[in-house]
Fold DUF218 domain-containing protein.
Amino acid sequence: METLQGEKFSQVRQAAEKVFNYLNIKDEPKAADVIFILGGSSLEPINRAAQLYKEGFAPKIAFVSQGGKFGGEAVWGMTEVEKYKQVLLELGVSESDIVCEEDRSKQTRNTFDEARYAIPFLNECGFNLQKMILVSRPVHQRRAYLTFLQIHPEIGYINCPAHERLDVNDPKILARQVQEMERLLDYGVKEESISKPSITIDVLRASVILRKYLKQIGLYQSRTKPKAKFI
């Protein structure tokens, strides 16, 4: 793994921080009806959700994700629903305050399906949802928010991403940032699956810097059939 040094380090670090700060949309925690954990391969959103629950921001924690290509059973040997519940119980969350989809055939595998399924599922569980705290990884938080906002704009969302630090020496992290930016651009073109994102020119340029660096070290994989392109 190449360690960034000198002028290249400074340029890539600044670009990575700018993109990270853009993707890591966050609000001050506020009272809500439920804390919803997005699917993913990290335990940090679970820890964050448990913290918010213990601090009294919502009485329940919910999740519906089975796991996609890089999460769930591929990481833990069990579905994300099973892993999340296991960890939350270990962290002291009451089982009666955990709301999850136990039926594997109904569990979701991507953010769009989570946004479509979660609200009706929770309403069927007796919620009268007005406000929801969304918890995901920082790199995924903005896309998660825009997806939920597009599918269910009637809900008030509070963004409380997990506490994760940016490691600029990890090319996989940089690659995920570029992937998220490309998804925001692609999905937002026709506003089919997410609300159209507002992206400033400096964030776009930072994304280009990261993409060029990843190409140089052979770790950039272009999206298939992109609807939009970076500048």
